[in-house]
Write a structure and sequence with these properties.
Blueprint: E1 8-13, H1 18-28, H2 47-62, E2 71-74, H3 78-88, E3 98-101, H4 118-124, H5 126-135, H6 148-165, E4 170-175, H7 177-187, H8 192-201, E5 209-215, E6 223-231, H9 233-236
Parallel strand pairs: 1-4, 2-3, 2-4
Antiparallel strand pairs: 1-5, 5-6
Length: about 250
């Protein structure tokens, strides 16, 4: 029977962004609003994020040619595109089948709570803040925004594309923290409790690598199995600082 999956999938969170830095500063100062002028999709990497992306690209480029990605898919958001291209620039273009942006890999949309800290949400939208606390982040959808379930729905479509077009290939996906976690939910067949436990345990480090290898002996017809989880050696091996900045407001306290 023909293999359904790629040989390998790497899922990477973008390098530290200017937005991550601004969010950390706003929350540390107990401010209501994150001080950043760009649209979320236009926020670039920070100077450190550029270093992280370069270290990541160096790590991928040092892999043997037959183990490097030959398909690169990335979120259209600037910080993800910059991270992906830092890797692509270290690969042999002749070996690449596809380098493409995919809007389904974009950040979770925050709707009316965009750029607000948890304090800002509680101050401006107290009823929404209470609803979010009650429902939980997996199902809560802010007006004009998305829940984790909404993100998972579009990622199911991405996996359909990958299994149709890139079976037997080596696929690198560059996106955002929630993208990494929601892919884990799908590929590891988790439920709400399992993925939220992982989320509570810590943020996904910037430019960390979570990867899956195809194991023909797993399951009835072979499947992808977890190989690396939030792997940061591409950074630490080069002395590049590791950051774990949040992408979205912290969960309300119950």
């Amino acid at each position: 029977m023909e293999q359904k999956w790629p040989q390998q999938i790497w899922i990477v969170r973008h390098g530290q962004s200017a937005g991550n830095v601004a969010r950390d500063a706003a929350e540390a100062a107990s401010q209501f609003l994150i001080d950043i002028a760009e649209r979320d999709m236009d926020v670039p990497l920070s100077a450190l994020g550029e270093q992280q992306a370069a270290a990541l690209g160096q790590w991928f480029g040092a892999l043997p040619p037959e183990q490097r990605p030959n398909v690169v898919l990335f979120s259209p958001y600037v910080r993800a595109r910059e991270t992906a291209l830092a890797v692509v620039n270290r690969l042999d273009r002749n070996d690449l089948l596809t380098v493409a942006t995919d809007e389904r890999l974009r950040e979770k949309e925050f709707g009316i709570v965009d750029r607000l800290t948890p304090l800002g949400i509680a101050d401006k939208f107290p009823e929404l803040h209470e609803q979010r606390r009650h429902v939980g982040k997996f199902y809560f959808r802010p007006p004009g925004g998305e829940s984790w379930c909404d993100v998972i729905l579009r990622l199911r479509s991405v996996l359909d594309t990958i299994t149709r077009e890139y079976r037997n290939e080596r696929v690198l996906i560059v996106g955002h923290q929630v993208i990494v976690n929601c892919f884990r939910y799908l590929l590891e067949r988790m439920d709400e409790d399992a993925i939220l436990a992982i989320d509570r345990a810590g943020d996904v480090p910037n430019c960390s690598v979570t990867s899956y290898r195809f194991d023909p002996a797993a399951g009835k017809r072979g499947k992808l199995v977890l190989d690396l989880e939030n792997f940061v050696a591409p950074l630490t091996d080069t002395g590049t600082p590791v950051t774990t900045s949040k992408d979205e407001p912290a969960a309300p306290k119950s």
